[in-house]
Amino acid sequence: MIVLSRSAVIHSDEIEITAIRAQGAGGQHVNKNATAVHLRFDIRASTLPDFYKSRLLAASHHLITQDGMIVIKAQQHRSQELNRQDALQRLESLIRDLTRVEKARRATRPTLASKKRRLEGKAQKSQTKSLRGRVRKISE
């Protein structure tokens, strides 16, 4: 069971986890044992609140399919249990990230002192650059 907030909980029976063989190098262990994990979570069929469902379905993320399934493949570790924990942790962090409500930004104006500092800096930079020009000969 994953607890996201007081109102949002994902029960273990909503998550489908299957063991598969991992890809890539690893020798005999990788070829014989199903250590990788495929996690599938159906957003529409879950018991998540409507706010969570709408935010997840509206998000454009590579782990969310068109029909509202979150598919996570974990094969980082050598043991199936560690890969299972990794997949569950990635599911939790994905849901938390996509449903986080950002604080609304209020537009502010720069202060008078910051405007003066900016203009003084520009004047100083202009003065420095004007001194970089070609040196003229003074005719006697």
UniProtKB/TrEMBL annotation:
Gene Ontology molecular function terms on file: peptidyl-tRNA hydrolase activity; ribosome binding; translation release factor activity
EC numbers on record: 3.1.1.29
Entry keywords, A to Z: Cytoplasm, Hydrolase, Translation regulation
Bias kind Basic residues: ranges: 131-140
Catalytic activity: an N-acyl-L-alpha-aminoacyl-tRNA + H2O = an N-acyl-L-amino acid + a tRNA + H(+)
GO cellular component terms attached to this protein's record: cytoplasm
Assembly and interaction partners: Associated with 70S ribosomes and polysomes.
Name of this protein: Peptidyl-tRNA hydrolase ArfB
Annotated organism of origin: Izhakiella australiensis
